[in-house]
Amino acid sequence: KEERDVARAECNVEKANGDKLKEQLSALSGSACFHSSDCCEWQYEINGGWSSFGADAMERVQGAYMEFLCDGDKNVVEIASGGMVRKLDFKAMEQEALLTRNRRKIRLKLHVPSLWCKPVYQLVDRRDQLYEKNVSADIHDAMLRFMSQSAHDGSDSHPSSECPAVCRISGLRIWRVENFRLWQEYRHRIRRLQESNGMQELSPISPRLGSMSPKLESELNILSGPDHVFEHVSERWLFHGTSYENAGKIVIGGVVNPFCGRE
Predict the structure, then answer these.
(1) DSSP 97-142
(2) Are strands 40-46 and 49-52 parallel, antiparallel or unpaired?
C-alpha cells in the first residue's frame, strides 16, 4: 500500500508539472522541442501500465539518450522532473527515484506508422540504414498494381516522356523507407496545416484522377495500412519518378522544393 501511495504521489506531482509546461509548449507549437516530443514519448511503467514523463523532462531524456547512442558509456544520467531527481539507465532501460529508491522500467515510444518494423534505437539513430525490405506479398502486389494503373498514357504533346513505360512495370523487390527524421518533419507540417485550417471543412478533390482514382481504392487501403489519417488535412499519395541517384538523396534528406524540376 505504501508503495502504491508513493507511486501515486509521484505520478500526480509529475503530471501537474507536465501539464503546466505542456500549456507553455503549446503556445510555441512551431518550436522544435514541441514537435520532437510529438513523435518521441518517454514513458515509465507504473501499476501494470505506462505513463508519460513530464514535458519538462521529455526533451532532456531524449537528448541524453541520443548521446548514449553516440557513446555507449554514457548510459546513466540523472534527470530532475516534477520536483524529484531520477537516475536513468539506458542499457537496462530502468529509472530509479533517488529519494524513494523505487525502480521502474522505462521505454521510448515513437509515433510512427504501424507498418514500420525497425527497433526504436535504430529509428532514432540517424547513422543507421534507412531501408527495410518489404516481406508482405499483399503490399508488393498492391504497389505494382498501383503504379502501373496510375501511370500516364502516351501523349503526342510529350513524346519524350517515359511515363507510359510504368504501365508495363514489374518489380523484383520493394523497400520501405523508415526515416524517422523525415517522419518528424512530415508530422510537423501536418500539425501546422491543422492549425492554419482550424476546424473548417475542406472541399473534396474532384475529379479524382491518377492515384486518387476510385478504381485504386482497394490498393490504397492496403498500402496505407491500419493507421488513422490525419484529421482536417487532405492527405493523398503522390508518385513522382526521378533518377536512381536522386532517389537516394530524397531518401536521406527528403524533397528539396527549390530543386524540384531542375534534376
Answers:
(1) ETTT--EEEEEEEE---TT--S-HHHHH-TTS--EEE---HHHHHH
(2) antiparallel
Instruction: Quote the DSSP letter at residue 16.
Output: H
Q: How far is CA 15 from the centre of its chain?
A: 24
Print pLDDT tens along the chain (263 aa): 544 554 455 555 445 444 443 443 333 333 333 335 568 899 999 999 999 998 888 889 989 998 998 888 889 999 988 788 999 999 999 999 999 999 999 999 998 888 888 888 888 876 667 888 888 889 889 888 888 887 777 777 777 777 777 778 787 888 888 999 888 888 888 888 777 766 566 666 666 666 677 888 888 888 877 776 566 666 777 777 778 888 888 888 888 765 555 54
Reported pTM: 0.67
User: Grid coordinates representing 3?
Assistant: 508503495
Is it true that the peptide bond before 207 is cis, omega within 30 degrees of 0? yes
Strands 49-52 and 76-81: unpaired
* Contact (Cβ atoms closer than 8 angstroms) between residue 102 and residue 214: no
Interatomic CA distance for residues 72 and 64, integer angstroms: 11
